Amino acid sequence: MESSFLPPIHERETDELIDIIIYGNNHYETEAVEQAIAELVKRGVSEEEQHEIIKQFHDKERQLELEHQQELKENETVSYSYFEMLLIFFVSPIFISRRFFNLYMTFSELRDNNYKKKFKQRIFLLAAGLLFYISAALLQINKTNEEWLKKVDNTDITKWEKNRITDDSTYLLNDSTK
């Protein structure tokens, strides 16, 4: 009894039928798995061969998982280069906003790929870079204020005072100094 799978099971490649059997009921309907097994038998692929193919698949899957675990272990100690560290430090405000600078992995990608050292370095470099720019901005504001105050202190206001002081205010000034 052939069901209406698209494309029909009998038209699929042998590798695709094997995938249906391997991934089984987790990804396919039970009927599709049964039809795939029946189609492989029709094509002359014995149950022993099917089991051998499935075993090879699982072996390869285990090998890939071991390689992935090894890669995660190696990622723990990977560090940024000095150039990358300088780049992150000096462009930290842009880096934090991530609007224009999407060159490196995100924090969650670093964590998911087990880049523990890079994760810590990134946090430190971004914080240090941000503090650097905040300090520079505060120093510039302070310098500008000092320059403005010097300019105000050095401004000659004698003409202004002469034009503003009347005889009555002179009397009040003289009276207050007594």
Present the secondary structure layout.
Layout: H1 14-27, H2 30-42, H3 47-75, H4 82-90, H5 92-97, H6 107-112, H7 116-154, H8 158-164, H9 167-177
Helix pairs in contact: 1-2, 4-7
Question: What do you see in this structure?
Answer:
The chain is mainly α. The protein folds into 2 domains: 9-75; 82-164, no CATH class. The chain has helices at 14-27, 30-42, 47-75, 82-90, 92-97, 107-112, 116-154, 158-164, 167-177.
**So what's the overall shape?**
elongated
| Oligomeric status | single chain
In total, how many beta strands? 0
Low-confidence stretches: none
The sequence of SSEs as H and E is HHHHHHHHH
Outline:
This protein is mainly alpha-helical.
Keywords:
elongated, 178 residues, 9 helices, mainly alpha
